[in-house]
Design a protein that fits this description.
By secondary structure, the protein is of the alpha/beta class. The chain has eight helices and 13 strands. Helix content is about 35%, strand content about 20%. Helix 2 crosses helix 8. It starts with a helix and ends with a helix.
């Protein structure tokens, strides 16, 4: 049987069409597979386990919680890892912006936990609390050292908050502890409210856009040491009437059973006795 030129063309076109379909399927099956999400290496506590009981949400906040090469660590993270191990409760870390953590706890869709939060009456309306896991050394104010405005240490906090020449820098949605929150509500200082992280707040102080902000002393030390700004550019202001440091807690969505929280609380008590 002889093939005409037309038949050769038709067969060639069919072969090209079939080859095109094959190459398209091969490309689609490889190029459109999602890249794996970068996670911390698997450990007993971070492994993908169907029996994981709680997701612990955290954000970068030296020296309390920091993402390392192998795990999350810090003044709050290290005790919590040991506490959950003692309680026999599996968990996984999830890095979540601070404000979003509170929203997740309030939404109450799963067994969620926020790490290292202060206790406030407003948060107690939607969250369950553990026993305290850490206590700050004390809240101070950070100012620029060469700020010409009068900001002195060892004075009552009312003196700085009632000074209308000074501008307080506040982070939206945050608490500086009940004592300071109450004083701010009472004295209504001139303020700027921001959503930026503490390092950005420190830069605002450096640029003179605000005069001071409140922060725990150990956090201030870590912040000024790692900000990239000259550490001696800033001064720490301590107050004569500041109460002892704020306590930090685990907060849970209401979906977390009381039995689990009780196990965690017993482990917290055991941990504190041995440390």
């Amino acid at each position: 049987m002889k093939f005409t030129t037309t038949k050769y063309i038709i067969i060639t076109l069919i072969l090209i069409f079939v080859l095109s379909i094959f190459l398209y399927i091969k490309y689609y099956s490889t190029a459109h597979i999602s890249s794996p999400i970068k996670t911390l290496p698997n450990t007993d506590n971070t492994a993908k386990d169907q029996n994981i009981a709680i997701t612990i949400h955290y954000h970068e906040k030296p020296p309390y919680y920091i993402t390392g090469d192998l795990d999350v660590y810090g003044l709050c993270a290290d005790p919590v890892k040991e506490i959950f191990k003692q309680a026999g409760i599996k968990f996984r870390w999830e890095k979540t912006p601070a404000k979003r953590q509170l929203e997740i706890i309030k939404e109450n869709h799963a067994r969620d936990c926020g790490l290292g939060w202060y206790k406030t009456s407003e948060r107690e309306t939607f969250a369950k609390y553990s026993l305290p896991i850490y206590q700050d050394r004390g809240v101070i104010a950070v100012k620029k050292r060469d700020n010409p405005k009068k900001i002195m240490s060892n004075r009552p906090i009312e003196e700085i908050l009632s000074n209308r020449e000074l501008t307080l820098l506040l982070k939206s949605g945050y608490s500086d502890g009940q004592f300071i929150d109450d004083q701010i509500a009472k004295l209504n200082p001139k303020r700027i409210v921001t959503t930026i992280e503490p390092i950005g707040m420190l830069k605002m102080i450096s640029l003179g856009r605000a005069d001071y902000f409140f922060i725990a002393e150990e956090e201030a030390e870590a912040l000024t040491a790692t900000s990239g700004l000259p550490k001696d550019e800033f001064e720490f202001i301590r107050f004569s009437d500041m109460p002892e440091g704020n306590k930090r807690y685990l907060i849970f969505s209401k979906m977390v059973e009381d039995e689990l929280i009780e196990k965690i609380n017993k482990a917290i008590q055991s941990y504190k006795k041995s440390n």
